[in-house]
Design goal:
Strands 2, 4, 5, 6, 9, 10 and 11 form a seven-stranded mixed sheet that branches. Strands 1-3-8-7 form a four-stranded antiparallel sheet, with no helix packed on it. The chain is mostly beta strands and 121 residues long. Helices cover 0% and strands 50% of the residues.
Amino acid sequence: QAQLVESGGSLVHPGESLTLSCAASGFAFSEYTMSWYRQVAESTRELVASIGTTGGSSNAGSTHYEGSGAGRFTIRRDNAKNTVYLHMNDLQPADTALYLCKATSGTVSKWGQGTLVTVSS
């Protein structure tokens, strides 16, 4: 059964860094584009970053960032570990959210349950 499990969320102070992990199982991880989204309360999920597949495509491993995280966040994947990471620098209170992992291949997508990041002094 396909599963995505996020971890690494924590309470941090403004200016600190944090790395989130998303461990995948039950599907061909290397064939999926992986993304991090974040959501505050019941608002719409916001794309934070995505990373393409790393096998034989023109955008192999290409990364894309949106929103206020661009320039501060870095996404990377480790296909040997079926894991995608989001490293976040200089965190601010506005970054407080539930961070969710998404796997996409064509019309198929899978979501994790999320990990909570709280930035507060």
